[in-house]
Amino acid sequence: MATAFAPTRLDSHDDAAGQAATADSATVVTGSKEASDAGEAAASPALAKFRELGGTFGKALLAPMLGILVFLGLWAALAPQVNTSLGALPGPVEVAGQGVALFEEWQAGQQAKADFEAAQAERIAAGTQTEAFEYSGPPTFLDQIFTSLKTVALGFVLATLVAVPIGLLAGLSPTFNAAINPLVQIMKPVSPLAWLPIVTMVISAMITSADPLLPKAFVISALVVMLCSLWPTLINTAVGTASIDKDLLNVGRVLKLGWFAKLTKLILPSSLPYIFTGMRLSLGVGWMVLIAAEMLA
To answer: What total number of domains does the chain contain?
Structure first.
């Protein structure tokens, strides 16, 4: 009997060993799976951050670049189809070539100016010339671009300096607002072509010097830009000032704030969003007016 049951005990021992090995394998597999899940959980924030950065990068850079490329492609494809008496409409390649040529023209002009000034300095040093003269070469395309930028900048600054104080007064005083509103509504839609002869007459009467501080045409163009672009800033400033919470102004009265403190602490901070919106619109109007003003000034 003992001999008959011995193999049975050995088989039971082998089964126990096999079950233990299976349990160990299951433990190892489970541990590996848990470690893998922990690694994925640790990597998921980094992956989410990477995807977020990729989406932001795509919206900020890739989408605008795609739009520009589509526009250039349509331009290049459709330009040869537009034929006039002067030839086909230039495509992006032709325009880029002309841009390079204009830049080279500007470089040549700068070199000619440098050569003129160097030769003049040598003549003055040698005593053959007593007075220095300014270089009078023709302005290049880039020089004219700089002049246009200065014209818009001066007109925009003047428009802001005029429009913001008037807008603040109109927003704070209903009586003043009612007084200037008809004038604003009449002058706002006036074309730069209508302002130009009036400004030219006034500036020509005021600037009579043969060598003024600023060229007369530059002053005329800047003033026309100012007169056409100040209205959006003025109107938005008045609307923003009038929409200030009355309780805020009452607090200022209770605290007995002076007019300057009330202006800088209460009125301007509340009106700034409207003022900047008006300034942005005024800058766009100034750019549109610039071409007509410079062509006819």
So the answer is: 2
